[in-house]
Design goal:
By secondary structure, the protein is of the alpha/beta class. It has helices spanning 7-15, 33-45, 63-68, 73-82, 93-96, 109-112, 116-120, 123-139, 151-163, 193-198, 200-214, 220-233, 286-295; strands at residues 2-4, 22-27, 48-53, 87-89, 143-147, 169-173, 237-244, 259-267, 270-278.
Length: 296
Amino acid sequence: VRTIRTVAELRAALAAHRGLRIGLVPTMGAFHDGHLALMRRARADTDVVVVSLFVNPSQFNERADLDRYPHDEARDGALAADLGVDYLFAPAVTEVYPDGFATTVTVDARLTGVLEGAQRGRTHFDAVTTVVSKLFNMVGPDIAYFGQKDAQQALVIRRMVQDLNLAIGIVVVPTVRDHDGLAMSSRNMLLSGTERQRATALHRALRLARHAIDAGERDPNPIKARVYAELTGSGVEPQYFELVEPDTLVPVQRINGEVLAVVAARVGATRLIDNETLSPSDRPSSQEQIECVTRC
Ligand code: AMP
């Protein structure tokens, strides 16, 4: 893998590959199996794999979160090399935001002002869409890879690509989890031993919602109440749990089709998110089951 620091050098390197399929995996580094799954997918799909490693300061709403964010570029470089990544693009902040930088790419607040946007502030997704637009223009990928772990981010980027007619395919890779269900995240390494145990509550909360829907519950409110109880009872501080329409992020009034269950919680000083797409199975609802018991 070749590490590249400047846009000029990146363009020069990629000029040699025009005509081949270029895959881009944008990351903030501190690689884990989630990142590696995106890279593997890019390696399988495309001819030239570019992984960007840039901790974008503008998308952090808390200075402490940015300061604590893990870095290990040497380890990241070795992992990328193992996976056959061609280029690791790791620019300095001044390379991405030179003096006088004054442009923002914004997706409508209906998608960016809710959930993560409500918690982290309106500027979070502006920062994401702006830096991702820049990376798209720097690299010129045919396909870019994102994780389902950040479901709202993936949705916002798909919206941006569609709205701006960007000729880039977006592939969303399923969430990679640890053995106990905890979604892989660079922030997991900030957890203490007991926090790491408590963090499994997010996955349990999603599983609880899935079981409730499987058992026939169609009203989001009792599910939300049980999930909040599970989270607080496990010693984590819930920020939100919602069942939303997967394409619009609008909370559902009733569970009729596929819903996206999204959760955010603080575990000590660390903020974690997770999500799962849930759909009512073909099994009869509990009311129908009761009727069946009396009828059958
Ligand atoms: P990050 O470095 O956290 O900004 O993540 C870079 C990319 O990896 C984003 O598209 C994330 O959605 C994706 N990602 C992060 N964690 C996971 C995971 N556990 N499974 C799959 N993709 C992930």
